[in-house]
Amino acid sequence: MTVELGRTIKYYRIKHNMTQAELADGICSIPHLSKIENSIYNANFGTAALLLERLGINIEEEYAQHTEIKQTLDSFIEAIQFADEEKAIEHYELLLDKETVIPRTNYRNTYHLYMMRYHLMNGNLNLAFKDWSIVDKNRSNLDTIEERFAELFYGIYLVEIGRLNEAKQLLLQLQNEEYAANFLFVREVAFIMSHCYTQLNEPEKAIIYAKEALYIFKQEDNYLRIAQSQMLLGINYTQLNMLEESFRVFKVLLRNTRLIGHKPLFFQATFNFGILLKKQAEYEQSHECFQQCTDYYKVGSKNYLYTRLANVDVLFSMNAETTFIRDILDEIIELSLHHAYERIELQARYFLYRLDSSDQLYHFLENELLPHFEQLEDATAFIPYAQELARWYQQNGQYEKANEYLQKYITKPQKRDLSMV
Predict the structure, then answer these.
(1) What CA–CA distance (Å, rounded) separates 51 from 28?
(2) I need a labelling partner for 370 at 20 to 30 A (CA). Which of 132, 170, 263, 382 fits?
(3) Residue 184: pLDDT band with limits 50, 70, 90
(4) 89, 143, 104: which is closest to 10 by C-alpha?
């Protein structure tokens, strides 16, 4: 981007209560000044210098400030793309210090786009949407690169809030555009597509995109993104029962994330490795993985509750003490209600009904759990519960009711295991 000073000139003219005629007098025509201020023309250095001098502004200092903002923005998005949290925070704070200057530069839309991506990286969806709203109101003023960034970042936002099919269509369209490969951000599209397909429980497609992302990130030595792409591969290999491939991926991930001391990725890998071990009926080892994660994650956080819930499933397989399992479920339900994690709370109640071996379980499945899962875009999430309900109706001689649930819900044979993506 070149430095455009039209907005800066307009900002200071209005601040000094000057009319366009007063500012333009002896320097340029009023229509020419108007076009400069509205970025129709980019003023040449001499004209811009004279206009700013009349406003009491040194053009060299103004150019330096614009250049500094651009360099900080470039470094900011690079830190985000390399998942370099320390550098991202550093540049974030530098940009906040320039927040009053940025609106009068031609970097204002880029600023809000990069802030949106930063907040998405940190899981601050409300702040991300706030920046998106500002960008969306100014869509007609975005240049080509900014428009592509806007589409990608909004796609990421849609994935994060669970509007997966909408995100998928947007990202596919973005990837298929002829000029997409010419833009820097193309490196992220494959990774986000894999993330989206993972949550949609389409592991074959998720693996294709994860491999593409892995290749791209290896080309640029983007080590943390390499690990994140491998995580997606491991999760989806597990889902497809490609257990040897999954085991190999997670062993590499666990070693590398431990060596570099990246605890969030290490424990994410530990959790997903626990899921793999559960599939292999290695319940003791799976339980150990989940116990490690329980000790690491903050009590009440989603990851903590996911870990406790996964561990309950393993404890059932281990025929653990009923009172021990009940204590864990009571904690999950209490914390889920406090934080309004409805899905986790419902799944915990499901296990509680199983623990009690009561027919109330099937009324709960029919009237609460399945209606909740119907709202989700991952249509396979409720299949095992629907199968369980259908079997109960069959055992009670209500074959029509059983067939009704089988026809309504059983569309795919596979079940998606709980994973941490």
Answers:
(1) 9
(2) 170
(3) low
(4) 104
List, for residues 103-125, the tens digit of each pLDDT value.
877 888 999 999 999 999 999 99
Residue tagged 């296990």 (tokens): 351
pLDDT, tens digit, 9 for 90 and up, residues 43-69: 788 888 899 889 888 888 878 888 899
Which residue carries 């969806």 as its tokens? 125
- How many angstroms separate the CA atoms of 21 and 16, rounded? 13
**312 with 351: CB under 8 angstroms?**
yes
Distances (CA, A) of 270 to 155, 185, 249, 257: 28, 30, 12, 10
* Rounded-to-integer distance, Cα 227 and Cα 266, Å: 10
Bin 39: left if φ > 0, else alpha if -120 < ψ < 50, else beta.
left
Q: Residue 297: what residue type?
A: Y
Query: Of all residues in the chain, what percent carry a pLDDT higher than 90?
Result: 64
Taking each helix axis as running N to C, give the angle between helix 263-279 and helix 302-317, from 0 to 180 degrees, rounded to the nearest 10: 20
In angstroms, the Cα distances linking 255 to 23, 233, 290 are 65, 16, 17
Our measurement of the distance from residue 142's CA atom to the centroid of its chain's CA atoms, rounded to an integer in Å, reads 23
Tokens of 278: 């559960």
